[in-house]
Amino acid sequence: MVEWIVSTGLTDYDFAVREMEARAEGIRAGTASEAIWLVEHPPLYTAGTSAKPEDLTDPDRFPVHTSKRGGQYTYHGPGQRVAYVMLDVAARGHDVRKFVASLEDWIIGTLNEFNVTGEKREGRVGVWVTRPEKPPLPGGQPREDKIAALGIRLRKWVSFHGLSINVEPELDHFDGIVPCGITGHGVTSLVDLGLPVTMTDVDVALKKTFAEQFAP
Question: Is 117 designated active site?
């Protein structure tokens, strides 16, 4: 049984990390159930284990939190749904690559509930949407914007950290970093794509599509 937890208001990032670590320990010890925790954070940047200092272009804009999750710099803030994923990866085959691919597919399935086509890209972590209405990149490559990010950590085969989907954040808040170290592409959200989607709508879609990827 996976417990679904939804926090209202804005959740302090350091508090969230402590709670995730404690829950992961409980899952491994058999004293706590697996959990999906849905939160919003106040505006902040996080630096994953592969973050490059030069990718923090405006270090004084928002608090910067060093994170032990994989990946580079990300932004969290109001209007962005963060889903912290505390699951027993050992019970799902001891396959980290497959687990990460399932997270991406979960995002894609969730976006599909709103008729948004999310796509993976080799060498670019996260989920992307093509923007044919925007001018192409030099060389004619179609413009693609990132709509969701992910980064996890495993401890004794239990995952924590997770993913984020842009519902209606302030997109210019991403300007203080090079998101996930990727240049040449932009960032978008469901509302930026013209969809009147609420956080509750996204929560319903996340829960609906979860079992397609993570049934034990």
Answer: no
